[in-house]
């Protein structure tokens, strides 16, 4: 059986180009593969230099050449916002200032920040005296004041894994400790919530 080969024309791909741009420096025949901007005003127009000439060009090029001190400072300040203008969210800056003033005049007195914080930061364990059972529950769960719900749950889970009857078989002492842990956990949750 005879194999038939198709005569396929080979296409050259864009990265396989054989011609190249010469260095823009006068009397240089090297490949110009490095771009350098032509001026501060036309940053999108480039010279193409070889490595040696682009180094030379970069050493001598000054972006701020011909600008006064005030113009340089203005340019640097605009660079912090990427040379894009910025506006207040609702348009007119005077309206924004009026909104802020209205907020401070009308809304701040209504917030009563101290009253809200008293209830929010209140910790029942610190504000109330503990009974003997609650102190015993703290000792059983290896906890110390101040407490929060996450601490109680974390220690409870750790102790349950150690003293659970499935882990300890028929050990009566471990079973009694397990019951005490559960009772202590329930007592502390009631006290906290």
What's the structural domain tally? 3
Spatially, the strands of the biggest sheet line up as 1-2
**Structural class of the secondary structure composition?**
mainly alpha
Assign an overall shape.
elongated
Strand percent estimate: under 5%
Low-confidence stretches: none
Q: By CATH's scheme, which homologous superfamily of the largest domain applies? A: DnaJ domain
Question: Could you explain the architecture of this structure?
Answer:
The protein has 193 residues and is mostly helical. It folds into 3 domains: 20-79, no CATH class; 87-122, no CATH class; 128-192, DnaJ domain (Helix Hairpins, Orthogonal Bundle). Helices cover 52% and strands 4% of the residues. It has 9 helices and 2 strands. It has helices at residues 51-60, 69-79, 93-111, 113-120, 124-127, 132-140, 149-163, 165-168, 172-192, and strands spanning 34-37, 46-49. Strands 1-2 form a two-stranded antiparallel sheet. Helix 7 packs antiparallel against helix 9. The longest helix is centred in the last third of the chain and has 21 residues, at 172-192. It is elongated. The model has no long low-confidence stretch (mean pLDDT 78).
Observed structural traits:
single chain, 193 residues, mainly alpha, Helix Hairpins, 3 domains, two-stranded antiparallel ribbon, 52% helix, 4% strand, elongated
Question: Brief overview, please?
Answer:
The protein has nine helices and two strands. With 193 residues, it is mainly alpha-helical.
Topology:
Layout: E1 34-37, E2 46-49, H1 51-60, H2 69-79, H3 93-111, H4 113-120, H5 124-127, H6 132-140, H7 149-163, H8 165-168, H9 172-192
Antiparallel strand pairs: 1-2
């Amino acid at each position: 059986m005879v194999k038939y080969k198709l005569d396929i024309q080979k296409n050259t791909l864009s990265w396989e180009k054989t011609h190249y741009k010469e260095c823009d420096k006068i009397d240089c025949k090297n490949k110009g593969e490095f771009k350098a901007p032509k001026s501060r005003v036309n940053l999108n127009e480039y010279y193409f230099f070889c490595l040696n000439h682009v180094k030379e060009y970069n050493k001598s090029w000054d972006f701020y050449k011909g600008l006064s001190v005030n113009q340089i400072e203005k340019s640097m300040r605009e660079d912090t916002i990427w040379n894009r203008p910025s506006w207040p969210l609702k348009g007119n800056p005077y309206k924004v200032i009026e909104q802020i003033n209205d907020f401070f005049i009308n809304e701040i007195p209504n917030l009563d920040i101290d009253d809200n914080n008293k209830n929010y930061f209140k910790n029942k364990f610190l504000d109330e005296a503990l009974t003997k059972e609650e102190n015993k529950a703290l000792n059983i769960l290896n906890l110390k004041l101040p407490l929060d719900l996450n601490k109680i749950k974390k220690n409870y889970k750790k102790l349950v894994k150690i003293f659970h009857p499935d882990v300890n078989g028929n050990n009566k002492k471990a079973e009694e400790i397990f019951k005490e842990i559960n009772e202590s956990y329930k007592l502390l949750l009631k006290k906290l919530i």
